[in-house]
Task: structure prediction
Amino acid sequence: MSSDFINYAGGAFSRRVINGDDTLLSVNDFKSEIKLHGEMYYQQNLPLMLWFFCANPPLQDGETTVCDGRQFFNEISSSTKDLFSKKKLKFTVRISQEDWQKKYQTDDLNQLEEMCRKNNTHLTVNDDQSILLEYICPAIIPSRCGKYQVFINSLLPTKQLSPKILNFEDDSEIPEEVVSELNEIAEKITTEISWQKSDILMIDNTRILHGRRSFADDQRDIYIRLCSPAFSF
Ligand SMILES: [Fe+2]
Result:
């Protein structure tokens, strides 16, 4: 079903490697809600397909959430569509030397530069070897067939967890009303998936957004693999 399993270099969360295979990761870094998003839409090289596997379900709550990015686009007001068609999103991240070496799984600056170039990410290296990364991308993309518009990006969890790192490309702020509008739409069109042991879930990461509800117990253990489809798509 899939090919090109990738590791999580450049990923936003810390993830536990399963069975020593760095393309098989547990997603439970923390327990709070994660709002709907496309996986790794804060960088250019992103997986087209995701697999989730329920190694162990939570005792309660902790549902995975999904929604259709095409439906999301259709629900957005025309003023907000207009805003996103005029202004792209810009992620600006400062990272210490120790942290970028961990995140990008290398301590070689040349290798980091190469990764950033391939990811269309602007890199500035400071005197203390800390770095500044800037990445610009649209909030709305065409569907694979080219006929539709799809709202898929990392806007909602970034505004939820690290609001300062996301603005428009001209450095203007994304208005609070716009973020509220998007959160309301997300809640309205969300489908919840209640896990049972050994369930698997395949996600088309070019169109379907995913997230999760918060949970409180230590039971929930969900694995993820990032990959490409091994069939025409
Ligand atoms: Fe995710």
Q: What stands out?
A: Residues 18 and 224 are 10 Å apart (CA to CA). The chain has a mean pLDDT of 95.
